[in-house]
Amino acid sequence: MTSMIRIYACAIIAVIALFNAPHISAAEMTAAQKAAPTANSKMNSTLEKTVDADLDAYRKKVVEAFKFNDFKKLELLEEEALSSSPDLLSNDTKLQNFHNGIYEAVDDGAPSDSKQLTYREKRFQAWMQTSPKSATAIIFYALSLKEHAWAIRGDGYSNTVSASQWREFREYLEKAENTLVSNKHKASVNPAWYSVMMQIVSGLNWSHDDYLELVIEATDRYPEYPNIYLHALNYMMPQWGGSFDMIEQFARSAVVKTKTKYGMAAYAMVYQFLGHYNSPGFGSTVHNLHTHLFEATKADWPSLKQGWLDVIARRKTQVAYNNYAWFACMANDMAATAAAFEEIKDSPDRSIWRPAKQYVACQRLIGIKPNYDIISPELKESGVNTNIELYRKYLNAIDELFMGEEFERLEQIYA
Questions:
Q1: Is the per-residue pLDDT at 406 higher than 90?
Q2: Most buried by CB count within 10 Å: which residue of 266, 340, 352, 386?
Q3: Which percentage of the chain shows pLDDT scores above 90?
Q4: For residue 113, what is the DSSP state?
């Protein structure tokens, strides 16, 4: 898919303390922010990975309609998408497949050339002009402007960005913001309006209070749309002025808004995003969340355990069982780990067990003889210590290699 960040969103926040840390301006945001989990990441489907034949056929219709500028057909397909319901535990919905179809239709790699970016923007403008009532056309045009802004800025640190680049960067982001704000009444019928707005204003000098107000409005209106969680969570990370206390409140308020239908599942989802938030460049505390979630954050295992049981009660998928096993092992709840592994059997999800040594270590902790041929044949000779603390020291060494940019050595380890 293109480098354009996939539209993502969902529920939460009732009563939450305002940010106390100083605001980080766009000029202070480095390329590290773009390394944070995006809707393009595997987190999109970590709660449920399914292939629905009907939805796949629907997505292909969207691709064909957009490629051949059949905007009348797109209007009908968009009506179907907007009349469908979001699902807190899955992005394999008609709305997300509509978005994915548009992305696929305009897939042109990761264009950095101004002419390519402008051409893409003109395609979305043509859609807007032909279908003035289309909420999604407006949203995608705003997204294309945002992408153009980041292409101008580049991936370097702030001190490598020239004054003219900063000026153009801001101009494009403000144009994207104005596009959404001026069309809010008709475009916000698509919940992606909110998640895209969050992406755009994260590069502008919005106050924390204003951003929080946007999150509250979004989650009040669309409490079951799973993308807002991810974008709000990124903004609440300590390196951007938030805190782990705030994230805990965020998770608790998610449950309040969704408990009738989903139980404690929203709590599990928030910490699932956080537990796999493993982006380099943020320093050891954040970088090690994948191995030190319970030490570094305010995550409560009993609440998480109930959350994953509620997820599994609604989605008996291998992805859900793998996540439950991973969290249980990190919490040193061997009974829950063993119960989850009974369901996993030989179906480890490598996007969750990173690296493979983690899966093997947890198997050994509960007395299971690892099947190296399934998870990682290269570990057969080296073996894995069953002591979880020694295992974490191993992962700390991985972190040091990452921070030291010893990528060749990392490639050997992760091969």
A1: no
A2: 266
A3: 53
A4: S
